[in-house]
Amino acid sequence: MCGIIGYAGHRPAVPVVVEGLCRLEYRGYDSAGVAFVRQGGLRVMRAKGKLAALEEKLAQEPLATATCAMGHTRWATHGVPAERNAHPHLSNDGSLALVHNGIIENYQEVKADLASKGYVFHSETDTEVLVNLIAERRKSEPDLLHAFAAALREAHGAYAVCLMHSAEPETIYAARMSAPLIFGLGTGENFVASDIPAFLPYTRRVIFLEDGELVRATPAQYEILRLADLAPVEHEAQTIQWDMQAAQKGGHRHFMLKEIFEQPRVISDGLTGRINAARDAALLPELDALPVPRRLHIVACGTSYHSGLWGRHLLEHWAGIPVQVEIASEFRYRDSLLLEKEEMALVISQSGETADTLAALRIAREHGVPVLGLCNVVGSSIAREASAVIYTQAGPEISVASTKAMCSQMLTLALMALYWGCRRNSLPATRRRELIGLLESLPALLDDYLPAMHDRARELSRKYAQARNFFYLGRGHCYPLALEGALKLKELSYIHAEGYAAGEMKHGPIALIDPAFPTFALALDDALFPKVKSNIVEVQARQGKVIALTNPGLDLAVDDPWIIPALPAPLAAFAALPALQLFSYEMADYLGKDVDQPRNLAKSVTVE
Ligand code: M6R
Fold it and tell me: pLDDT per residue over 506-561, tens digit each?
């Protein structure tokens, strides 16, 4: 949930690190800090709040000579957001500084042991415990590499860490276990970071470090070693295909807006190379070696979970595969998982690092079923641990609120349903051709409609900005969209919103409706339209105001109809999704909220 970066090179290191932190801020932003060596001693500077607070402090500091530094941007786990809990943390003797993303589960025991030896702690963090454990191990093991490894072997939990020593001003040490860490190879400079954009202006050559690996790097050299026995590990460097432009705002006010408007491109990229020449079959070579599952268990969190709920409709209707969809944090503690031979688990995760989803993946693997990963981030933990992975190819998603990732997940799920529908002969070629034609028409259709959709979202957000509550209602394939619309509104604008199956309203929630409690209904042109219309009428009968996302020509009387282009269900979701996203975006922006970095959140949730 935090972002770390380390740099050893030839440039002024602190600005490189701060710039990197800026691109990692989506991972956490309640405090930040840097460390570098000056005049033979470690200098640590930290500040509560966003990176700007740290930059202000750094502006007062002479930094020019340091060419090696590390930094951290924090999302609080142990200890409240405060300067004393911000990283880097120093060992008691001041010789070591550590930044850390993750949780050391046994830190209380280690802390008690260190305290009995006279160590004192100035923060509530597990990281301060770990850096002192390294210092303690160094007493019997003067080689820092060995002491570092010895301490990490005693630490239980998840970590990506970077370490500096006052006597080695040009060296960074780093290691990972169940938290992302990427090594960047430059010319006369090397990097480690939680995510590639942190060092992308300087190099596109990367090594995805594996769990249980440790790295020692200077400007000119690096070595990667196995934590267990310090045996050297060989990795081939990969070249990242995307560039800084993809990781920047591209003229938009916020990353979220840029990412919403990228969705037509995400769809065309996602289709590229995945449709056969006859345009009647999806090509997913990642699935060729796997049997068609008798039952599919989709496991995910947040927006990715909503994609899974939506995908269920297609996988069941087109491919005839029964699907169960579960929230990962619940799945991992179920007693009876019912994973049987010939079943398959599908874990969906934009980041590929979500702790609950990763745990679910491991449980499914223990049950002996193949686990398919649907990930956006190449080389992420889920991508590496799954039996097979399909990349959603959405490009970097920086805004904490997930938008284009959902679109790319939905597209990939549609392709999977087509692919398995073909293998199972459950979907005739004519129907597949028709559906592929529709998918291919989406980018142009969305490109045309997005600007008008944005205008309507702006207009409606102004009208409803005073609302303190919202219902989002949908049925069938629109129910997951109602959940997603409500999630977007609450996480961005902090307005309470509940996504509900429209047919369930009469079983209790309708009691909440009054003139100040508006409803956002999804009333698209599909088989369930008459039912949704009745549910809307029931809300109106209780003086509830209604915005309805609907299609041309439908007979529906609501306060605020929002007409979007008609597409056959369930593909209509591709047109409804950006409308929901834009409404939440505009609402949050109008209310002056921090759109790209909403309070209390982090992009990548690597804690349980
Ligand atoms: O990286 P993942 O797809 O595994 O992330 C899952 C959720 O944390 C994520 O979708 C979250 O709900 C977003 N903030 C939604 O906008």
Answer: 899 998 999 999 999 999 999 999 999 999 999 999 999 999 999 999 999 999 99
Indicate whether 463 belongs to any domain.
Answer: yes
Whether residue 608 lies inside any domain: the answer is no
Tell me: do 459 and 431 sit in the same domain: no
Half-sphere exposure of 524 (CA within 13 A, CB side): 26
Three-state helix/strand/coil letters over 489-558: HHHHHCCEEEEEEHHHHHHCHHHHCCCCCCEEEEECCCCCHHHHHHHHHHHHCCCCCEEEEECCCCCCCC
Q: Which amino acid residue places its CA nearest to atom 12 of ligand 1? A: 302
Q: Give per-residue pLDDT as tens, 564-591.
A: 999 998 999 999 999 999 999 999 999 9
Q: Whose CA is nearest to atom 16 of ligand 1?
A: 401
Provide the pLDDT for residue 336: 59
Three-state DSSP state, 163: strand
How many Cα neighbours within 13 Å face the side chain of 455? 6
How far does the centroid of ligand 1 lie from the alpha carbon of residue 303, in Å? 5
CB of 483 shorter than 6 A to ligand 1: no
Q: Whose CA is nearest to atom 14 of ligand 1?
A: 401
Residue 59 φ/ψ, nearest 5 degrees: -60, -25
381 Cβ closer than 6 Å to some ligand 1 atom = no
Domain count for the chain, please give it. Answer: 3
Known catalytic membership, residue 2:
yes
Give the mean pLDDT of 94-101.
97
432, 473: one domain: no
Centre of ligand 1 from the C-alpha of residue 487, in Å: 10
CATH number for 78: 3.60.20.10
State how far the Cα of 505 lies from the Cα of 541, in Å rounded to an integer. 13
Residues 238 and 295 in one domain: no
- Mutational pocket test of ligand 1: of 298, 402, 407, 487, the residue with most ligand atoms within 8 Å of the beta carbon: 402
* In a domain? residue 606: no
Q: Which residue segment(s) compose the domain that 531 sits in?
A: 448-590
- Active-site position among 48, 533, 545, 603: 603
For the chain, give the percent of residues with pLDDT over 70: 98
Residues 291 and 314 reside in one and the same domain: yes
Residue 69, number of CB atoms within 10 A of its CB: 30
Per-residue pLDDT reduced to its tens digit, 61-77: 876 689 999 999 987 77
25 lines ligand 1 (CB under 6 A): no
N-term to C-term CA, the chain: 11
Ligand 1: centre distance to CA 401 (Å): 7
In terms of DSSP H, where are the helices of 547-599? 573-590
H helices present in 332-428, as ranges: 355-366, 381-385, 404-423
Residue 26 identity (one-letter amino acid): Y
| Ligand 1 centroid to residue 417 C-alpha, Å | 23
pTM flag (> 0.90) = no
Do 315 and 417 meet the contact criterion of CB atoms below 8 Å apart? yes
Say how many C-beta atoms besides its own lie within 10 A of residue 278's C-beta.
Answer: 10
- What CATH number did the domain enclosing 389 receive? 3.40.50.10490
Active site annotation includes 603: yes
